[in-house]
Amino acid sequence: SHLLVAEPEKIYAMPDPTMPESDIKALTTLCDLADRELVVIIGWAKHIPGFSTLSLGDQMSLLQSAWMEILILSIVFRSLPYEDELVYAEDYIMDEEHSRLTGLLDLYVSILQLVRKYKKLKVEKEEFVTLKAIALANSDSMHIEDMEAVQKLQDALHEALQDFESSQHQEDPRRAGKLLMTLPLLRQTATKAVQHFYSIKVQGKVPMHKLFLEMLEAKV
Amino acid sequence: KEKHKILHRLLQNST
Fold it and tell me: CA-nearest residue of chain B to A211?
């Protein structure tokens, strides 16, 4: 219930109407969107019960290693009602062709695989918000100072998921496990996404805001 | 830590 209340509002990409369509424009729009989403994610993390009691250093380490998984999981959840389209934002939905033109076809295919997985599981909002928090707590950062405190946070979120499943999904005693088994693919997809946007950063043709750059560099 | 100024500042801001 805390996580449902903490769930951020809808976000909009607001592509620049004066810029002609191009792959650079699409990537610029996505990087600008990600930068604004990162601000929202950092605010959101502070509402996860137990997160703010971690040291500031550990809060930073978890966010630096998990931010792309959180971004992608949000895209996945927004895209569930759609067919073969990714909802990066309410006003920015990309199909296969648009993804190909933007050089994001590989990412499109990977994220769509996740979408299919969650569609099959008929994932619910309660499960999505809990999985997002688990992705943050379980981000395997190598710079954690207080492992016990992070483990406690993981345990509390894991318990919340199991409580939800045992009360709402008695028909499938292994549903919590099935949901957790989607995390490796989320991790793999997020790693691919970070590497791809880092290579775009190196090419230097797409403007990127400071927070996005900071988080990108922290990850590589 | 200095390199991650914005994240540091945003986490410290009270909501």
Answer: B6
Q: Tell me the helices (H) and strands (E) count for chain B, helix number first.
A: 1, 0
Of the candidates A38, A39, A19, the residue with the CA atom closest to the CA atom of residue A29: A19
Report pLDDT digits (tens) over A50-77. Answer: 999 999 999 999 999 999 999 999 999 9
> Are B12 and A63 an interchain contact pair (Cβ–Cβ within 8 Å)?
no
ipTM comes to: 0.91
Residues of A in contact with B6 (CB under 8 A): 210-211, 214
Residues of chain B with C-beta less than 8 angstroms from the C-beta of A42:
7, 10-11
Distance from CA of B15 to the nearest CA of A (A): 7
Nearest CB to B10 within list A42, A47, A217:
A42
